[in-house]
From TrEMBL:
Protein name: Flavonoid 3'-monooxygenase-like
CDD domains: CYP71_clan
GO molecular-function term, one example from the UniProt record: heme binding
InterPro entries reported in the protein's UniProt record: Cyt_P450, Cyt_P450_E_grp-I, Cyt_P450_sf
Similarity field: Belongs to the cytochrome P450 family.
Database matches in Pfam families: p450
Keywords: Heme, Iron, Metal-binding, Monooxygenase, Oxidoreductase
Gene3D superfamilies to which the protein is assigned, alphabetical: Cytochrome P450
Species annotation: Dipteronia sinensis
Cofactors (names): heme
The keyword Metal-binding is assigned to this record: yes
Length: 412
């Protein structure tokens, strides 16, 4: 009888405990309803959905988006990732909820190639990023400032056309010439002069080919899927060798930046009170000495901003023009229409000028269509959700890395 009493007592306590736990669970679910996450494939342990991403990540994500819709959630290693692949979804992340997703995750590319997140592209959202953006808009990209550099663009474009004319009748690798002209323009605007040699008879800190290779490597390393970024406990192994390449690239850019900045600082020191900034490095170095800035700029800050300006204005422009020429060569009737517009508006007695662009709607449409079909960046750098958010009825948790936005391509 005593044993039976103990069993009954134990069963009673078990039932009471289960009832209590059920009540607590029900109350918790009522106060915390289950999250409505975006659709997506089921992740594997450890790697998540990295097994679904091929050598061209944007194409892999496009195929997945066709199955799961314009907003989907994947898991890359240890982190949830939301992918937006329609114009409306991109607008939700980049405009409607811009503040929530304005920050960036910490990646190896940001740490090693942009001076520990001190450029605009990889800087986390906060006072430093806001100040950098303000500097870009008010000091570097103002209409007055850009107009003051028009003579540089004119000189380099005419030199570009002269080189092409001299090669008439010969095969031409257009991308090399486009890269050269855009790099020359940006170097003079940002650095004050071309710091690379264009022939074997010139001496400079780097050759044109070396500097172009450095920029190509910078673009590649900022777009790779580095395993250590997504599975942190594997980071120290550098399985793909990307971190080693990033460190080597940083040393090359350091050598280049140090040479450029030393020349600029010597010039500033010699003029002192009468110093007037002539280029964007002059402006940034002057701002670095400004005690009234909300966040003090240091030497690496100037390097990060300078690198942003050089990289952002070279390969992107050259690639877009190359795609435009490729599309036009496949459709000669478009070349005829563009030529007719140029003859009618400009004539053949003078060069096209920047002020003529508003009067050339057909050529403007060609460039816009080129950028629609061939965006310079098919994937945006990952953002970071700073707080929980609801986007189009789906719950996005704090710490999620959205949006890996695929630029939407509509049929023509």
């Amino acid at each position: 009888m005593e044993a039976l009493s103990l069993v009954v007592s134990a069963v009673t306590w078990l039932l009471v405990t289960l009832a209590f736990l059920k009540k607590i669970s029900t109350s918790w679910r009522q106060r915390h309803p289950p999250l409505q996450l975006p659709p997506g494939p089921k992740p594997w342990p450890v790697i998540g959905n990295l097994n679904l991403i091929g050598p061209l990540p944007h194409q892999s994500l496009h195929k997945l988006a066709q199955k799961y819709g314009p907003i989907m959630q994947l898991t890359f290693g240890s982190f949830p990732v939301v992918v937006a692949s329609s114009a409306e979804m991109a607008k939700q992340f980049l405009k409607t909820h811009d503040r929530v997703f304005a920050s960036r995750p910490q990646t190896a590319a940001g740490k090693y190639t942009t001076y520990n997140y001190l450029n605009i592209a990889w800087a986390p959202y906060g006072p430093y990023w806001r100040q950098g953006r303000k500097i870009y808009l008010s000091e570097l990209f103002s209409s007055k400032r850009l107009e003051s550099y028009e003579y540089i663009r004119v000189e380099e474009l005419r030199a570009f056309f002269s080189r092409l004319y001299a090669l008439s009748g010969k095969p031409v690798l257009l991308k090399d010439h486009l890269s050269r002209v855009t790099l020359s323009i940006m170097s003079r605007i940002v650095l004050g002069k071309k710091y690379f040699s264009e022939s074997e008879f010139e001496t400079a800190v780097v050759t044109l080919e070396e500097f172009q290779e450095m920029l190509d490597e910078l673009f590649l390393l900022n777009g790779v899927l580095n395993i250590g970024d997504w599975i942190p406990w594997l980071d120290f192994m550098d399985l793909q060798g990307f971190v080693k390449r990033m460190k080597a690239l940083k040393k090359k850019f350091d050598r280049f930046h140090d040479h450029v900045f030393e020349e600029h600082k010597a010039k500033m020191k010699g003029l002192v009170q009468d110093f007037v900034p002539k280029d964007m490095v002059d402006l940034l170095l002057q701002l670095a000495d400004d005690p009234n800035l909300e966040v003090k700029l240091n030497y690496d800050s100037v390097k990060g901003f300078t690198q942003d300006l050089i990289a952002g204005g070279t390969d992107t422009s050259a690639t877009t023009v190359e795609w435009a020429m490729s599309e036009l060569m496949k459709q000669p009737h478009l070349i005829e229409k563009a030529t007719e517009e140029l003859d009618r508006v400009i004539g053949r007695e003078r060069w096209v000028e920047e002020k003529d662009i508003p009067q050339l709607p057909y050529i403007d449409a060609i460039m816009k269509e080129t950028m629609r079909k061939h965006p310079v960046a098919v994937l945006l750098p990952p953002h970071l959700a700073q707080e929980d958010c609801n986007v189009s009825g789906y719950d996005i948790r704090k710490g999620t890395r959205p949006p890996a936005v695929l630029y939407p391509i509509k049929s023509a």
